[in-house]
Amino acid sequence: GAVVSQHPSRVICKSGTSVKIECRSLDFQATTMFWYRQFPKQSLMLMATSNEGSKATYEQGVEKDKFLINHASLTLSTLTVTSAHPEDSSFYICSARDRGATRSYNEQFFGPGTRLTVL
Amino acid sequence: AQSVSQHNHHVILSEAASLELGCNYSYGGTVNLFWYVQYPGQHLQLLLKYFSGDPLVKGIKGFEAEFIKSKFSFNLRKPSVQWSDTAEYFCAVSRNTGFQKLVFGTGTRLLVSP
Question: What is the pLDDT of chain B when averaged over all its residues?
Fold first, then answer.
């Protein structure tokens, strides 16, 4: 099956610093990747849709200058949390859609998530 | 805007009991429907999905779900749960066009006692 990895799995940083999270599709090419945020005991909230070679599409209420997304290749998307603050502490999850799928719906495959703690 | 509601936040069952988790969505157009499972410490996995056709969908691990269009529902069922089904279950909806973004419900935490 399709595998999506995230790195790092956990990160602790000081307030004011920036943190980069990587999302990779390991055995398929993904033209579209999605970034989600999950608060404790809550659902996944879509933050942005990342397309290879173009600017990301952010959901309403998500600060694009705060959460920088770069989809530089068909297998890698990065999320950078800039000037992180304690309220940015959360579980960040990415998913990727298989470019090669021919079905009308292209299934999303999820990464294992990255737990960010900002002190 | 689309929304998804899951009525049960926590469910506790004994092994061999039957399971039904409710899911309702709000969107008038054509949708794709999903159930995802998140086992403790693991990533989200797709249990089953509905695009079109037979409204009774069978997924992995003995799960099934029924799409009832008139009720905007997509309830998940399993006739006999096992301890290994302990996990969090998410219902999700996407439109059939554009990026096909997923909108998730709040999740149901299932605990199956041996």
Answer: 92
